[in-house]
Design goal:
Elements lengths: L9 H9 L8 H22 L8 E5 L5 E3 H16 L3 E6 L6 E2 L10 E9 L10 E9 L10 H4 L6 E9 L3 E7 L2 E8 L4 E6 L10 E3 L10 H10 L11 E2 L5 H11 L1 E5 L12 H14 L3 E3 L19 E4 L1 H15 L1
Parallel strand pairs: 3-5, 11-12, 11-13
Antiparallel strand pairs: 1-2, 3-4, 5-6, 6-7, 7-8, 8-9, 9-10, 13-15, 14-15
Helix pairs in contact: 1-2, 2-3, 5-8
Bound molecules: 2,5-anhydro-1,6-di-O-phosphono-D-glucitol (AHG) and manganese (II) ion (2 copies).
The site of one manganese (II) ion has 6 residues, from strand 5.
Length: 339
């Protein structure tokens, strides 16, 4: 297949974006390039997962007490490695690590950004050949440049994100990232090993046909959520219902599809898990930033996800995210049930 030279690569695009900011240092472009490189390496291992002995548990559990697969560890190490060797990142926080890692060398201490990530999302799907992903979030440091980063750099509200993105290892591999300028998607051209701008200026349709939720938990959801889900299954002239239920169990894949096609994703609190399952810093915040920059909405059922001030690295939050109209419908149901 001939390569279309009119399509921008990820690097060309980020450099072009810098032209709008005469004072830009290129650090963010460098950081995105580093993450893109780690994701290419992860992609290679994901593609080989059925062939090599990398499958299965590595015998340990992560800080949330969940099973850790070997590929989670590999992905974590790749991301940490590129960011440590790069010049744009002063430290990282990861779903797979108990605590933050501060790079604390002369160059890293001068870097203006820190990065948080879920190295492998949907890891229970690895063994069954279903799409999985990587999620990342970038903040400007609040600590003094020239010194090591501090915990406060990592515990900022999501509305302070400079950029956030994800990579989906699916039928093709895509990197999607958002900055305040908008959301853009790049598809990995394996033949040249470059991400090409395939989805410029992504906008989330105001309404879609899909709702994504773990239906098995229906009876332990709060009343308003149950009523909304029930309404999703009924014929409705104003919202185009009944909707189609789609739930992959890899948040990256579920939210990616809903972002492109329109839809809503719910991971509510349950009676046994009042804070839900998903992690605010590694999963909820980055997706809330991306989806909101694309015109959608994201809440914890009470307030905008991005307004939550985190107190702990690994804290969880209920998450409702997706197309604007569908989110507003859900909010109506939740409000009415509380009256
Ligand atoms: P991770 O693999 O990083 O632990 O994340 C899995 C998450 C998310 O991707 C997915 O939407 C959700 O867990 C699925 O949870 P349930 O199986 O409880 O529905
Ligand atoms: Mn995850
Ligand atoms: Mn994970």
């Amino acid at each position: 297949m001939a390569t279309n030279r009119n399509i921008l690569t990820l690097d060309e695009f980020t450099i072009q974006e810098m032209r709008a900011f005469p004072n830009a240092t290129g650090e963010l472009a460098g950081l995105l390039r580093d993450i893109g490189l780690a994701a290419k390496r992860i992609n290679v291992e994901v593609n080989r997962a059925g062939l090599v002995d990398i499958l299965g548990d590595d015998g340990s559990t992560n800080v949330q007490g969940e099973e850790v697969k070997k590929l989670d560890v590999f992905a974590n190490d790749q991301l940490m490695g590129v960011l440590k060797h790069g010049i744009s990142c002063a430290g990282i926080g990861s779903e797979e690590l108990d605590d933050i890692v501060l790079f604390d060398d002369e160059i890293s201490n001068k870097a203006k950004y820190i990065c948080l990530f879920d190295p492998l999302d949907g890891s229970s799907n690895i063994d069954v050949n279903v799409s999985i992903g990587t999620i990342f979030s970038v903040y400007r440091r609040v600590s003094e440049l020239g010194k090591p980063a501090t915990k406060a750099d990592f515990l900022q509200a999501g509305n302070q994100q400079v950029a956030a993105g994800y990579v989906v290892y699916g039928s093709s591999t895509m990197l999607v990232y958002a900055t305040k300028r908008g959301v853009n998607g790049f598809t990995l051209d394996q033949s040249i090993g470059e991400y090409l701008l395939s989805h410029p200026n992504i906008k989330c349709p105001t309404i879609g046909k899909m709702y994504s939720v773990n239906h098995g938990n229906f009876f332990v959801f709060e009343q308003g959520v149950k009523e909304y889900i029930t309404a999703c299954q009924k014929k409705n002239e104003t919202n185009g219902g009944p909707y189609t239920q789609r739930y992959i169990g890899s948040m990256v894949s579920d939210v990616h599809r809903n972002l492109i096609r329109g839809g809503i994703f719910l991971y509510p609190s349950t009676t046994s898990k009042p804070k839900g399952k998903l992690r605010l810093l590694y999963e909820c915040n980055p997706f809330a930033f991306i989806v909101q920059k694309a015109g959608g909405k994201a809440t914890n059922g009470v307030i905008n996800i991005l307004d939550i001030v985190p107190t702990e690295l690994h804290q969880r939050s209920p998450l409702y995210i997706g197309s604007k109209f569908m989110m507003e419908e859900l909010e109506d149901f939740m409000e009415k049930s509380k009256k």
